Automatic annotation (TrEMBL):
Keyword Nucleotide-binding annotated: yes
Record SUPFAM superfamilies: P-loop containing nucleoside triphosphate hydrolases (SSF52540), Ribosomal protein S5 domain 2-like (SSF54211)
Enzyme Commission identifier(s): 3.4.21.53
Annotated protein name in UniProt: endopeptidase La
Domain (Lon proteolytic): residue spans on this chain: 571-766
Keywords: ATP-binding, Coiled coil, Hydrolase, Nucleotide-binding, Protease, Serine protease
Catalytic reaction equation(s): Hydrolysis of proteins in presence of ATP
Residue runs in coiled coils: 143-178, 528-555
Any one Gene Ontology molecular-function term assigned to this protein's record: ATP binding
InterPro entries in the cross-refs: AAA_32, Lon-like_helical, Lon_proteolytic, Lon_Prtase, LonB_AAA-LID, P-loop_NTPase, Ribosomal_Su5_D2-typ_SF, Ribsml_uS5_D2-typ_fold_subgr
UniProt family annotation: Belongs to the peptidase S16 family.
Catalytic residues (UniProt): S661, K704
Pfam family of the protein (one): LonC_helical
C-alpha cells in the first residue's frame, strides 16, 4: 500500500505575508533624513571580505596577493579603496626610482633608489650642475693663466726640437754637408763644395774616396736625423700628455668645486655618491663635449646616441612618490606596456634612437611599495600580461624588457635596464568562474594569490542591519552630492533591496543597483523641484526603470490581449493547467503563465516529455519529469503497472525549456488526464517536487505571481483567481503593492503548499488522497471519492480489459 502523507488543506496567505515593510525601528525617531546620518566608511555587509583584505595587507611575505570574488556591482572596488585609503602601512618602504646612464655599458642603464620625494630634487640638482659646468668648463680654459701655461709648454717643446736639429745641422756643416727643410716639409742633406752645393760636374770630379766619404757621412747623419724625428714625436706625446694632465687638472679643480656640495648632500646614500663619482670621472674623460663651439656639433651631442653627449648625464625619474605615504593605483586597461613600462624611441634628423632617458614607468612602477588594483578578466585577455605579472611577482623584480624583443625572432638592439626591486600587493577583481578556471588550469595562481576576499550577495535583514543600511544609503548620497532622502525614501529603498535579494529576511548587497536607484530618484526629485528625495520619487524612478527595459514584456502581454497566445483564466479543463515561468533578458526579468497539457493513451505507464523528444527540454526539466513519473508510479502503480502512456508538453513553446519549477503543475495535469477530472484555470501553480510529492522551492516567485496577475487583468478578473507556490517560498515574497492590496480585499489569492496533493485538492476540487482504513486487503488503496481513488478506478478498468492477441 502506498504511503500518502495526510495533507491539510492549503490556507491562503494574508497580505502581511506578501510584503515586509521597513519600519526602521533601530533608527532614531528624530532622524528624518540622511542628512542626520553618519555615512559608512565601509561597504555594508562585507565583513568577511574586509577581514581577508586586512589579513593580506598585514603580511609581508611573498604570494599574499588578493583575489576579490563577487559579481559586478557588489562594491568590491569601492570597499577596497575606502579601506586602503585608511590603511597605514606597517613598514613603509617607499622610494623614488631613477634610471641613469651606466658609464661602463650604456645599453644597461642603472637604477638609483632615492628617499621618497627626493627624486625630482636630485634631477634638478644634476640639471643645475650641468648648466654650471657647460659655462664654467669653457671659462676655465679661456683665460690668460691657462694660455700662458700652454704657451710655455709649447715653447719648451719647440726649444728642445730646435736644439736637437741645430746640433745635427752643425755636425753636418763640419762635414761639408748642408741640412735644410724643403717646401714640402721634408729634410734634405746636400754635399757642399765650399759654400755652395756640389753639382753633378763638381761632384763627379771628386775622387772615389771623397764621394764614398760624403755618402757615408750623409747616411750617418740621416740615421741621426731619424732618431731626432722619433725623439721629437716622443716629446710631442709628452707635451700632449702634459697638456692633457694640465687640462684635466684644470677641469678637476672646477668639478671638485661643483660636485662637493652634492656629494656632501647625499653622503648617506652610497649609490648616489657612487653615481656622482662615476659622472665626475666620465666628464674628465669627455671634456671635449663641453668645449665644442659648433652649434651643429652641440645639437648632435644632445640628441644622438654617441658616447660623448650631455644627455648621458641626465636623470630619468620614473617614480616620484611625492608626499604620499601609501601608493594606491587602479589600472583600468592593463596592457603589457601600461603595466610594466616601456622604452620610447626618438628621432633626430632621420635617425631613430633610444636611451635610458626615454624609459617610461608602468603601473607596477607607480604602485611599488603600495597596492595595484586590476580586473582579472582584463589582465587575462591581454597578450603576455598574465605571464609577465606572474614572473614579476615570483622574482619580486620589475624587469623592463622589450615586448617586441620577446615576441619576435629578430635581434633588434634595445636597452636592458637594471631591474627594480618589487614590493607590491596585487588585488584582482573577478567572478567565481574566472577564479575556478585559474585554480584549475594555472598551478602558479594559488601560490601567488593566497588570499581570497569572497564578497557576499546578500546580508541578513534585521532592525540593526536596516539602520546600518540607512547609513550606507547616506554614504552614497554624500559621495555623489545628491539631495538627501527622507525617512520614507530610506524605507522604500530598503524594501527594494529586499526585493532584489528575493527574500524578506535578506538585503541585497549589489550597491551599484542601489546607487543607480538613488541617482535616478535624485533626478526625479530635482525635476519635481523637491528639496529632498521622497518615497514617491523612488517609486517614479522604479517605474521609469521598468518602462525602459520592458519592451519584450509589453510585446508578450500584447499577444495575450489579441489572443495570439492562448490562455484560459476562468474555466475548468481536463489535462490542462496554467504553470508559471520566468523570462530573463540582460537587464530585466518577468513572469508569464504557460499552458501545460497532458493526454493519455493505452500504454506501459510512460510519461513522454514532448519537449525532451524534440530537444527543446533541458536536462533539469527532463529530470523533473522523471521525478514526477516516479511519484506517480509510487502512488498509482504500486501493485500493477499503469496501463497508460502520458504525453506532456508546453503549449505554444517554440524555444528551449529548462528548470523543474513546472514539475508540480505537470503532475497535476497528468492526474487530471488519468482521472478525467477538470483542473481550475483560474489558478496558476509553480513549484518543483521530489519523489515523495513534497513541494520544493523555486526562483522568481514574485515575478511569476505578478505575471499571472497581469494576465488575469487582461483576460478579466474574478475573485477566485490566485497562485499556488511552495510553502518554502513564502519568505521570498516581496510583491507589488497592487497585488498586496488585491489579496487584502479578497480579490486575489496566494496559497502556499508543502505537498503536491494540496495543490490537487485546490485545482480539482476534491481531496487528493484518502487511504482506506477499513479493509487493508482491498485491491483499491484509496477511497473512491478522492482524486487518487477515481484515477485508480479508471486504471483498474483499463487493466481489466482483455489483452489483444
Amino acid at each position: 500500500m502506498p504511503t500518502v502523507p495526510t495533507a491539510t488543506p492549503a490556507i491562503p496567505l494574508t497580505s502581511q505575508q506578501l510584503y515586509r515593510k521597513s519600519d526602521l525601528k533601530q533608527l532614531n525617531p528624530e532622524c528624518q533624513s540622511t542628512a542626520q546620518l553618519t555615512p559608512l566608511d565601509d561597504i555594508v555587509g562585507q565583513e568577511r571580505a574586509q577581514q581577508a583584505v586586512e589579513f593580506a595587507m598585514g603580511i609581508k611575505e611573498k604570494g599574499y596577493n588578493i583575489y576579490a570574488i563577487g559579481q559586478n556591482g557588489l562594491g568590491k572596488r569601492t570597499m577596497m579603496l575606502r579601506y586602503l585609503n585608511r590603511h597605514e602601512p606597517i613598514e613603509p618602504s617607499l622610494f623614488d626610482w631613477c634610471y641613469v646612464v651606466n658609464f661602463d655599458d650604456t645599453r644597461s642603464p642603472k637604477v638609483l633608489k632615492l628617499t621618497a620625494g627626493t627624486g625630482q630634487e636630485f634631477k634638478k640638482s644634476i640639471e643645475k650642475l650641468m648648466l654650471k659646468l657647460v659655462k664654467a668648463l669653457p671659462l676655465a680654459f679661456d683665460n690668460e693663466m691657462y694660455y700662458a701655461r700652454a704657451e710655455k709648454l709649447k715653447s719648451q717643446l719647440a726649444q728642445k726640437q730646435e736644439a736637437a736639429l741645430t746640433e745635427l745641422s752643425e755636425e753636418a756643416k763640419q762635414k761639408n754637408i748642408s741640412l735644410s727643410l724643403t717646401l714640402q716639409g721634408d729634410y734634405q742633406m746636400v754635399a757642399l763644395n765650399g759654400e755652395e752645393p756640389h753639382d753633378e760636374v763638381s761632384f763627379g770630379a771628386l775622387t772615389e774616396a771623397e764621394r764614398t766619404q760624403f755618402e757615408s757621412n750623409i747616411n750617418g747623419l740621416e740615421v741621426k736625423l731619424r732618431g731626432i724625428i722619433r725623439q721629437n714625436t716622443e716629446w710631442e706625446e709628452e707635451f700632449s700628455d702634459t697638456q692633457q694632465e694640465h687640462d684635466e687638472q684644470v677641469a678637476k679643480d672646477v668639478l671638485v668645486h661643483f660636485f662637493k656640495p652634492l656629494k656632501d648632500k647625499y653622503k648617506h646614500q652610497p649609490e648616489v655618491r657612487a653615481f656622482l663619482t662615476g659622472m665626475q670621472a666620465d666628464i674628465l674623460s669627455n671634456l671635449d663635449i663641453f668645449l665644442e663651439e659648433s652649434e651643429e656639433q652641440l645639437a648632435l651631442a644632445y640628441a644622438s646616441l654617441e658616447k660623448k653627449m650631455p644627455r648621458r648625464y641626465q636623470v630619468n625619474v620614473i617614480v616620484c612618490q611625492g608626499e604620499q605615504t601609501f601608493p594606491i593605483v587602479v589600472e583600468e586597461s592593463p596592457s603589457y606596456h601600461s603595466l610594466f613600462g616601456y622604452v620610447e624611441n626618438a628621432t633626430f634628423r632621420g635617425t631613430v634612437f633610444t636611451d635610458f632617458s626615454l624609459i617610461r614607468a608602468g603601473s607596477l612602477h607607480k604602485a611599488n611599495g603600495g597596492v595595484l588594483l586590476m580586473d582579472a578578466i582584463k589582465v587575462l585577455e591581454r597578450p603576455y600580461v598574465w605571464d609577465g605579472l606572474k614572473r614579476a611577482l615570483r622574482s619580486r623584480k620589475l624587469d623592463l624588457s622589450s615586448l617586441e624583443r620577446e615576441v619576435s625572432l629578430s635581434g633588434t638592439i634595445s636597452l636592458a635596464p637594471e631591474p627594480i626591486p618589487l614590493d607590491v600587493k596585487i588585488i584582482l577583481f573577478g567572478d567565481h568562474e574566472t577564479y575556478q578556471l585559474l585554480q584549475h588550469y594555472d598551478p602558479d595562481f594559488s601560490e601567488l594569490f593566497r588570499v581570497t576576499a569572497d564578497f557576499e550577495d546578500v546580508m541578513d535583514r534585521t532592525d540593526v542591519s536596516e539602520a546600518q543600511y540607512a547609513r550606507f544609503i547616506s554614504s552614497i548620497v554624500h559621495d555623489n552630492n545628491m539631495l538627501h532622502c527622507d525617512r520614507s525614501a530610506i524605507a522604500r529603498i530598503i524594501e527594494y533591496s529586499s526585493r532584489e535579494a528575493q527574500d524578506q529576511q535578506k538585503l541585497s548587497l549589489h550597491s551599484a543597483n542601489i546607487a543607480n536607484l538613488l541617482r535616478e530618484s535624485n533626478f526625479c526629485a530635482k525635476a519635481a523641484a523637491s528639496q529632498s528625495i521622497e518615497k514617491q520619487h523612488v517609486e517614479q524612478a522604479l517605474k521609469n526603470q521598468e518602462q525602459r527595459v520592458s519592451r519584450l514584456h509589453d510585446n508578450i502581454m500584447e499577444s495575450f490581449i489579441n489572443g495570439t497566445t492562448l490562455i484560459n483564466t476562468h474555466d475548468k479543463v481536463v489535462g490542462q493547467i496554467n504553470a508559471l515561468s520566468v523570462i530573463s533578458t540582460s537587464d530585466h526579468q518577468f513572469g508569464l503563465p504557460n499552458r501545460i497539457t497532458a493526454t493519455t493513451a493505452f500504454g506501459k505507464g510512460e510519461v513522454l516529455d514532448i519537449e525532451h523528444r524534440v530537444k527543446l527540454g533541458g536536462r533539469i526539466h527532463s529530470k523533473g519529469v522523471l521525478i514526477l513519473t516516479a511519484y506517480l508510479a509510487s502512488v498509482l502503480g504500486k501493485t500493477a503497472q499503469i496501463p497508460l502512456t502520458t504525453y506532456l508538453t508546453f503549449e505554444q513553446s517554440y524555444s528551449g525549456v529548462d528548470g523543474d519549477s513546472a514539475s508540480m503543475a505537470e503532475c497535476c495535469a497528468i492526474i487530471s488526464a488519468i482521472s478525467e477530472l477538470p483542473l481550475r484555470q483560474d489558478i496558476a501553480i509553480t513549484g518543483s517536487m521530489n519523489q515523495f510529492g513534497e513541494a520544493q522551492p523555486i526562483g522568481g516567485a514574485n515575478e511569476k505571481i505578478e505575471g499571472f496577475f497581469d494576465v488575469c487583468k487582461i483576460k478579466g478578473r474574478s475573485s477566485s483567481q490566485g497562485v499556488i507556490i511552495p510553502e518554502s517560498n513564502i519568505a521570498n515574497l516581496m510583491l507589488r503593492q497592487d497585488i498586496v492590496e488585491a489579496v487584502e480585499r479578497g480579490e486575489f489569492h496566494i496559497w502556499a503548499i508543502s505537498h503536491v496533493t494540496q495543490a490537487m485538492a485546490l485545482l480539482l476540487g476534491k481531496t487528493a488522497a484518502t487511504l482506506r482504513g477499513d479493509d487493508a486487503k482491498h485491491p483499491d488503496h484509496y477511497v473512491p471519492e478522492c482524486v487518487f481513488g477515481i484515477a485508480q478506478q479508471k486504471l483498474n478498468a483499463l487493466r481489466a480489459l482483455p489483452k489483444a492477441n
